[in-house]
TrEMBL record:
Family recorded in the similarity comment: Belongs to the CorA metal ion transporter (MIT) (TC 1.A.35) family.
Function per UniProt: Mediates influx of magnesium ions. Alternates between open and closed states. Activated by low cytoplasmic Mg(2+) levels. Inactive when cytoplasmic Mg(2+) levels are high.
Catalytic activity from the UniProt record: Mg(2+)(in) = Mg(2+)(out)
Topology term for the membrane: Multi-pass membrane protein
Name of the molecule in the record: Magnesium transporter
GO molecular function, one term: magnesium ion binding
Any one of the GO CC terms: plasma membrane
Amino acid sequence: MQKILLYEQVSEIEPFVSKRACTLLHRPQLESFIGIDKFNLVVFNWYDLHSRMKKSPQVAICFDSDDIFFLCENEEALAMVKKIIAEQTQEQPLSNEELLYHFFMRLLRNDVNYLNDYEMLITEIEDRMVAGLQKDYLTKIISYRKDLLRLKRYYEQLGFVFEELTANENSLLSANGVQLCNILSRRTDRLFASAVNLRDYIAQVLDAYQSQLDYHQNNLMKIFTVVTTIFLPLTLLVGWYGMNFDMPELHSAYSYPIVIAVSAFIVAALIIVFKKKKWM
């Protein structure tokens, strides 16, 4: 028997599973994989690559040698599972092992292309950042990091499930079923490695963005420092001749032009020195 239900309909499958399995299914928190006697329970949080859902709905798959049941946390996950099962069984009926294999293969079908497109997006962000054509880099980078973290966790949990199925400790799966789970495990490992590499890549882009910000800030501070240094001697002159003393040079007819000339000379000399040292 193959059946797709919501979590609240779990009582409908109780006649077909053992009492111990029923007890497990009524737990508020289910482990990713439980294998007892001739019964396996697989639990994972479904991550829709094309959805912006903040919470990934949970899907549980209970199966033994005769029956397989899909339990979904919400209506969206239920519709997704029904669609996939209908696609896989429309040509011919599948055994439980084959259905399990084709279900997960369908879930992971376009993930490689999705990750490749994601890499192109990150590369485009990096190019535009270097060229200075875009300003909201930080928002996009943080958004990409969150998405890739969810994706990494998604592949991580699936990898754990497939490893446990491949181990086949309760001997529920046939040799062919173990081989199919091994294929799924290797595929998930590659996807997990790609997601980790993309997270490393986005971290490098973030570091490059931070370095670019630091570079611009340093240039700005250098400009302020140069301007301050140029006008510091003039500030000294203002302070000196602003004192309330009777200075002899103030009575000369040439004192004012001389002060102007000295000030201009100081500014010009400092500008020449800074340009030679490439500080300007």
